[in-house]
Amino acid sequence: MKKLLLGNEALAQGAIDAGLSGVYAYPGTPSTEITEYIQKSKTAKALNIHSKWSVNEKTAMEAALGMSYAGKRAMTVMKHVGLNVAADVFMNMSVSGINGGLVVVVADDPSMHSSQNEQDSRYYGKFAMIPILEPSNQQEAYTITRHAFDLSEQLGLPVMIRMVTRLSHSRAGVDTLKSEIQNSIHLPKNPYQFQLIPMHARNQYQHLVDIQSDIRENSEKSSFNKLIDGADNSIGIIASGIAYNYLMENFEDNGCPFPILKITQYPLPKRKLKKLYDTCTKILVLEEGYPFIEELLTNFLGENNKVLGKLNGYINRVGELNPDNIAKALGFEAKKEGKVPEVVSGRPPELCVGCAHRDLFEAINKLSEEMGSQQVFGDIGCYALGVLAPYKSINTLIDMGASITMAKGASDAGIHPSIAIIGDSTFTHSGMTGLLDAVIENTPITVIISDNSAIAMTGAQDSSASGRLVDICKGLGVAENHLKIITPLHKNLEKNIGVIRDEINYKGLSVVIAQRPCVQLPKEKKDKLKRLKSVALN
Amino acid sequence: MKTNIILAGVGGQGILTIAAVLDTAALASNLNIKQSEVHGMSQRGGAVQSHVRISDKEIFSDLIPLGKADLIISVEPMELLRYLPFLKKDGYLVTDSNPFENITDYPKLETLYNEIKAHPNHILIDAKKIAKDLGNSRATNIVLIGAASSMLPLSEESLLNAIKSLFERKGERIVKKNIEAFFKGKEIANEFVS
Fold first, then answer.
1. Considering just the CA atoms, what is the radius of gyration of chain A in Å?
2. What does the pLDDT look like over B30-60, one tens digit per residue?
3. Cα A419 to the chain's mean position, in Å?
4. In order of start, what are the domains of chain B with their CATH numbers?
5. Which of B44, B90, B115 should we substitute to test contact with A (largest number of A Cβ atoms within 10 Å)?
6. Is B20 helix (H, G, I), strand (E, B) or coil?
7. In this complex, do B33 and A245 lie within 8 Å of one another by their Cβ atoms?
8. Residues A4, A77: Cα–Cα separation, whole Å
9. Interface check B117 vs A, CB under 8 A
10. Do B44 and A382 lie within an 8 Å CB cutoff?
11. Is there a contact between B63 and A457 if contact means CB atoms under 8 Å apart?
12. How far is A186 from chain B, CA to nearest CA, in Å?
């Protein structure tokens, strides 16, 4: 019988069946369930596949590259903005190439369901000059992942798989195949391959440029890229990834009358594309994310009116695709019957009842009354909900770790008080280096680490910071008399305000750790944390 | 034959339990299924929905187009109304009547009920009370599946088997309570329709 799997789970099962030896990742919506599936898989456990969370996406990708160096198949998984964090190793490992198959999975979030931007990872794939695979459905997510490892070893390059929210988080029945055995350890044949000093890197980069024609030819011949005939040549349609599903949905059981080029593997297959382009009057480009394919086909001066898509308003530029906006692009009328009654109110997400962040924000808001507002720098996590009513305590949210460094910059500019609020896991992900900057200059900022001992927003995964925060802060050089621990509970409100006020009034760097476990954590985890904490404090 | 169902509720109310029952029953009946869900920030007490599509033919889109849903099952009355643009003209609404009030501008219940009752095919029931009376308030969602069962493209047997297999781990008593909840929901819905 078919297995009922999320797109993310189908991909993970594909990796296990492809002879994966390790997955390295940091949680991030919509990518999280890929790694979680491998963590929970009995098969993966029996095969001793590494699946423990990494501290951030950069450490994850580097560890995956290390496993590839040893000759084994490795995968690294992240959300789109996570690739920004890992961009350094990402751009260089296409120059070094890989040894064991290495697959980079990036899940984009068009419509920003749970993200701060809509960046399209295909640009990164192109930037690094590597193949990109973009499955359109759950079965393809399984099949393509297996293919990705073979392709990676065949070309000697990392291969990117681009997922999007709607495929990541939708289930369907998936057929699986017999699994392959893991690679044994075999070190790189060419000893210079991973030594990217300029004299070796030049050769490696030349090699990367030289094999571009092979990569293109592989795409050209890929059975995943299909040119599907159609009787009506008035429009030729290019549909990549899940855009293909939304297109076909509009023709239900009758089939699409227009020729279609279904794109699942990049770089774009030039011959197939040219055939479609030359034989059709107009070209409609349907792609999730940025107008990546469309920009290649239109000319810069805008004299080419043949291509229709996001650049000329046929499709919405912002937000994700769905069957309805594609219906509109095809000239069909929407079948909308009812409307949302006026009485229906919006229901934005909110912090859980009993959440420790709530008590922290209450204290911050009381302090803002006496110390001025708009001076609280926030970060990525559940506590970002502190931007919204009823708290409205946080004034910025940019990227992982930016609370501390932005607070520092604002303080350097002369703002006081300047307060950073960062979660425990975000702190170990990207906050520690910024804190060191502030330690070095003894910058008068107060860093509040809201420590709920979990990566809460993505489902309360284990935090690398658990039981280690005090030691980390001390180790970075935070003065012990300005390193305070509070318990954010309503009954402690006045006491906590006092502690934070004292540290704000101190004209140097201070850190307040607001410590109370996430309410979503199961009891046994909370008990384990209590033991960790008492060790850290002694 | 394709059936499109929207499941609605608030993050944490467990609409994915309903989805899991439908998915399991459909897969065991050799039908194709696609079921989308919401993860991440929105699931923290915000409006959440799941699109469930069941068909004997290939299903393309993971999302249901506007005006194509045969049925909306909601565990909360205001959340039901949020998805009306997806409902077919002759589609059905099945909902629990208990509000989840975590916002300051929650509308008057009577206004909500009137909006629901204005729709010709609606089943508005106190599923929570029914489940509670059976001694398992967590079975509210299963009461709603029972209430919607006659509109589903799935046999009663396949739905019951799905419930059994999903709750098996929790012991025989919980399985029994959930099956009772299913039949109670079905019974009340019948009264409602007639």
1. 25
2. 999 999 998 877 677 899 999 999 999 999 9
3. 27
4. 2-193 (3.40.920.10)
5. B44
6. helix
7. no
8. 21
9. no
10. yes
11. no
12. 39
> Of 3.40.1110.10, 3.40.50.720, 3.40.50.510, 3.40.50.970, which CATH number belongs to A356-537?
3.40.50.970
| Gap from B176 CA to chain A (nearest CA, Å) | 25
The amino acid occupying position B87 is L
- By the CB < 8 Å criterion, does B36 face chain A? yes
- How many angstroms separate the CA of residue B189 from the nearest CA in chain A? 23
Closest Cβ–Cβ partner in A4, A250, A385 for B23: A4
Q: What is the mean pLDDT of chain B?
A: 94
When scoring A139, A244, A343 by the number of chain B Cβ atoms within 10 A, the one with the most, hence best to mutate, is: A343
pLDDT of residue B75: 97
Burial of A38 (0-12, 13-18, 19+ CB in 10 A): buried
Handedness of CA A371, A377, A382, A384 (dihedral sign): positive
d(CA A473, CA A295): 48
One-letter amino acid of A117: N
Q: Tell me the fold of A3-210.
A: Rossmann fold (3.40.50)
Give the tens place of pLDDT for each residue, B18-33.
Answer: 999 999 999 999 999 9
Cβ–Cβ contact B169 with A under 8 A: no
* Segments of chain A scoring below 50 in pLDDT: 538
Q: Do domains A226-329 and A356-537 have the same CATH topology?
A: yes
User: Which of A1, A2, A249 comes nearest B65 by C-beta?
Assistant: A249
Q: What is the per-residue burial (b if ≥16 Cβ within 10 Å, else e) of B161-183?
A: bbbeebbeeeeeeebebbbbbbb
Residue-range domain boundaries for chain A: 3-210, 226-329, 356-537
Token pair, residue B28, equals: 């065991």
CATH code of the domain occupying A226-329: 3.40.50.920
Q: Which residues touch B149 (CB under 8 Å, ≥6 apart)?
A: B156, B159, B182, B185, B186, B189
For A446-475, give the DSSP string. Answer: EEEEEE-SSBTTTT-BPPTTTTTHHHHHHH
